[in-house]
Amino acid sequence: MHTQKSSKSASRENANSNKSQSKSVNQLSNEVQDKRTKHLPGGLLNISNNFTSQDNEHNIENNKTEDVDNKIVLQYFKEIIRQQSYFRTQLWQIADDLRDMKNELMQQVRQRPNVNDQREESIFSFLHLPFNSVEDLEEHVEQFLNQPNNFETSVKEVSRVGGKNPYEFVKRNCTRLLTNELAEKYSWLGAKQKRKFCHLKLADLLIVSGQDSNSAYTTKVLEEAIQKWLRRAKERLNAEKKKEDKQRIEQEN
Question: Where is the composition biased (Polar residues) (predicted)?
Answer without folding.
Answer: 1-13
